[in-house]
């Protein structure tokens, strides 16, 4: 940013007006680009490599067909899940439950807790949905400190995870149907 300010002051001023939080992942209050956004782009790019020299209509049909299959497979997978959280979130919780049992929790008030693990002490704020380790803040999936607080308060671990990790949300995300394009002679084109 210093280099940008020195060479293009007006551009620098415009970026500062936008706010740094919107520009830099490191300053983002949440993880905007992680597994889902990166993986889908990489998956799509690898699928399109083989067909990049085809006519645009063929590429469009290939993409439509690919998305139709992906949505069907993911919709089927989501409907087979019987847990509240997705398999990914359930695995995350299970991996960290043992670690969270080693944490010592001391209430500060009804929403804030000092939580110590063998490395460091941190503060969990249930009202702000924040932990100083920042894992819960960024991923919106319970860290070991939040799990320790949930256990102390008798709360289910699943309550403190974002709705984005629920099976219901996953089912909703893939609820749209990708239909085949009908033959051109059946199209109803308005004047």
UniProtKB/TrEMBL annotation:
Which PROSITE patterns does this entry report, sorted A to Z? ZF_SWIM
Gene Ontology molecular functions: zinc ion binding
Disulfide bond is among the record's keywords:
no
Do you know which InterPro entries this protein is assigned to? Znf_PMZ (IPR006564), Znf_SWIM (IPR007527)
Protein name as annotated: SWIM-type domain-containing protein
Write down a Pfam family by its short name. Answer: SWIM
Q: Which residues form the SWIM-type domain?
A: 122-154
What keywords would UniProt list here? Metal-binding, Zinc, Zinc-finger
